[in-house]
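To: structure subgroup
Subject: Chain for Friday's discussion

All,

I'm putting the inputs and outputs inline so they're searchable in the archive.
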Amino acid sequence: SWTMGGVRTKNGHPHFVPLSPLACRLIEEALALRSDAGSPFVFPSPWARVVGPVSPGALTQSTADLFRALD
């Protein structure tokens, strides 16, 4: 399971998200594969000058690039 603290939610209450065993394993594997093991993010930005998670459009852009390459 994953819990988001109340300080990070709109209503100020903690938010609990149940996760399946498979989801927990996938997150653990992703954490182990991070290029920056000290990052608090599961998917840190690959750009050294940026400290934070990957941008919201990164997956969309990567998918579009992949489809263009396959076309």
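Points worth raising on Friday:
Strands lie at 2-4, 15-17.
DSSP finds two helices and two strands in the chain.

D.
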